[in-house]
Every structure is written in C-alpha cells, then in structure tokens.
Amino acid sequence: MDWSKAKTILITAFTIINIFLGTNLWFKNNDINKVTAVSVKEMEEVKRFLKQEGIIVDADIPKKVEPQPFLMIGYKKTDAKKVAQSFFHDLKDVSYEKVKDSTTFQKGFQQLIVMENGIISYFNNEEKGEIYKDLDENRARELAEEFIKKHGGFPPNAEYDRTIYYNQSKSYLVEYVQVYRGKFLASSYIDVLVTPSGIKSYYCSWLEPLGYSGNPKKVISPAHALLKMVDILEKVEKPVRVTGIHLGYYSRYYNAEKWQAVPVWRVSVEKDEYYYINGYTGELEQ
C-alpha cells in the first residue's frame, strides 16, 4: 500500500470536510434560494491548502453564485455552397465531393469541409515561406480577425477567448467562444491557426442555444472546483498557477437535433490549459 498517497488523500478529505461542513449545514437550513456562497476565510483556507499541494491560485474567485438550469443547444444548419463561396468566391476552379454528412471543396492547396451539422474546417497546405515577419500575439489576433471577417464574418455573440503559442512552429492558435447571456458556451467556438507562412487552418463549431431547460439547481462552489484540481493535476509538474475560474456551459457533441449543456466551472491553468468541472457533480468533464 502506498502510505504516502493514502496520507495525502486523508489530509485532502479532512481539509474539504473542515472547510465545507459548516457551509453545507447552513445551506440545508436555508435552502430557499439555493445560492452558493463561500466566505473570504474559507477561500483563504482553500488557497493555503492548494499552495501546499503546489497549486497557486492567482485569480478572482466568485463569492456567490446563483442556481443554474441546463441549457438546451443544437446544431445550426449551414448551406455548404454559401460557405464555399465565402472562401473561394465564384467556385469556378473549385472541385467538390459530397458524401453522406459532409461536402469537401478543393482548390489547389486549399481544402474546405462543411458538415451538415454546421461544423466547418478549412486547411491551406501551400508553402509560401515567411510572409509574416515578427509575428507576435497581437498581430496574430489581428490576422485571425481579418480572416474571419473576410470569410463569412463572426457569428452572433462571438467573443475573443485566448491565444495559444506553439514555440516549435512559432505559430499562434487564436480562439473565439460563444457567450450566451453572459456565460461562455465552451462547445461553441472558432479556432484560427496563424503561422509565419500564413493562416493554415480555420475551424468553426457554432452551436445554437435554444433556451434554458428545467428548474435552476444549486451549483458547487468555486472552492469545491478548485479543490478538485488536486487530483486532476496530481501528475503535473509543480508548481502550477491557476489564472482564472469562470462559470459557463459545456457539452459533448451528440448526433441529435438538440440536447442539454451542463453548467461548469472552467479552471484556467497558466495560459494554455482549461479544465471543466461539472457544476452539479464536481466531476471533470472530458
């Protein structure tokens, strides 16, 4: 038996119990509006414990959270020909092949795939050498936005989310996410890969929010979600810095007309990693 690991598990369990026992008892007796709240003292205890585990919390933590319902979402139908025209204009020299659930358009080194469920993928494999000198994060974002505006424009409620830098290729992945009534919808996003030799790919999965479903339910506290990171980051080299925690919605993709997205806490680690913690169960969404 690994006594060291067992000891860590016990310490974690007792810490969580001590932090949340009083709060949970209070909520059982005051469950009228099911608001989730964490005191400053409790949050400081959580931060102190996480720091001992090599996880430094450098983010604003919401102190009070209203109950949240499920969010109904569905795919947004897309006209493949119109999408292709936004990329290739008159389609004169464009070949295409339609299969069961998608249409693939090809023009030289460029390929565009439009799925019936609205997902769009674009690739450009042409090698032009270095055309963007001194490419940095700001310039990459400018180029990504120019590309999107030129090829169909931004969909409603799109907001800039983050830029990931890939050191080996000196390229930037610029990401945009859909925001619905003030909360992100993680499964609805756009990615643009900007490299020194040009924009190499574009991916758009833009879902359609159909309104809330069911009665609002109490969600776990952000402190609970942060404590979950001890297990999630167990094998990650420490120290690790948490740079943000926000409430939004997340869903896997389903072959259906509509389905439910669940409230989640999105925990941002350093700058390049997001972890989604189910707001009802506290489990990691994958």
TrEMBL record:
InterPro entries: YycI-like
Entry superkingdom: Bacteria
Keyword line: Membrane, Transmembrane, Transmembrane helix
Domain Regulatory protein YycH-like as annotated: residue spans: 38-280
Transmembrane regions listed in the UniProt entry: 9-27
Cellular-component GO terms for this entry: membrane
Protein name stated in the entry: Regulatory protein YycH-like domain-containing protein
Native source organism of the sequence: Koleobacter methoxysyntrophicus
